[in-house]
Sequence to fold (122 residues):
Amino acid sequence: MARIAGVNIPTNKRVIVALTYIHGIGRTTAEQLATKLGIDHSRRVQDLSDQEVLQIREAIDADHVVEGDLRRNTAMNIKRLMDLRSYRGLRHRAGLPVRGQRTHTNARTRKGKAKPIAGKKK
Fold:
């Protein structure tokens, strides 16, 4: 099993799909990495040599912010907004949608399960 950026990527999947298991690497980035390193897109992780896995690991370390560092950056950005008491920070703190979505109905993902209110029904 190949370990890249602290993640065990699945061996029986294609390289492009397996790289997307790393937080911060999506389909497009994975394809660009494979093209840059000259790895065929249809190859599976189990067919890669140790040298190719090492090349992938080094390329990701050099050019991309992934996993823990990316999560830390995101958390710090949100914390900064909350400390500034900006509108976005207040929405994060209240657990409400941040990007202008309606909350009268919907928004259940951010607000959580609906709580019944006594005497609301007419």
Summary: The helical segments are 15-19, 27-37, 50-63, 67-84, 87-94, 108-111. The CA atoms of residues 15 and 91 lie 39 Å apart. The longest strand covers residues 2-4. The radius of gyration is 21 Å.
